[in-house]
Amino acid sequence: MKPNKKVLLIGGTSGIGKALIERMLEDNKVEQIFATYHRRQPITNHPYTEDPDVKEPDTKATDTRATDTENTDTKDKVVWLAMDVTSEPSIKQAIEQISEHVDHIDWAINAVGLLHNGSHQPEKAVKQLDPEFFIDNMKVNALPSLLIAKHLCTRQKKQKSLLKQRHNSNF
Fold first, then answer.
1. What is the pLDDT of residues 49-103, one digit of tens each?
2. Which of 1, 17, 73, 167 could make an S-S bridge to 11, C-beta 3.0–4.6 Å?
3. Are strands 5-10 and 30-37 parallel, antiparallel or unpaired?
């Protein structure tokens, strides 16, 4: 089957996001993965590489360098994009960068999440609720998915309208 799925994976550098990239790299139905990072872009395009070094982010970051151990079928499959999920302009910019590569996204997966930080652990009882930490959690765990959907839908509607106009002008 011809690869054709284009995926946006928010939070692809560790945990569930990294595992998803590893799995999608093996899936011949996935043609392109747009993976985001927050602070540091992975040095390689391939998450199987056990290189702990990272480089500072670039605003138009894509890393398509291959290593000797990479499968050449997947070396260009991942495009890394900087994204701060708590910043709507950052989300919008990443979506615009994706539009420079493809006309649509088939799947959008948000693997970013906040469960605890240095001063707060997950609440096990209502009396442990800290309103400020709850708001911080919502800013990372809920709002980004809505903002990503907002900008993806807006972008894809524009693309669909342009395609329709082109199609109608061909008649």
1. 444 444 444 434 444 333 333 334 556 899 999 999 999 999 999 999 999 999 8
2. 17
3. parallel
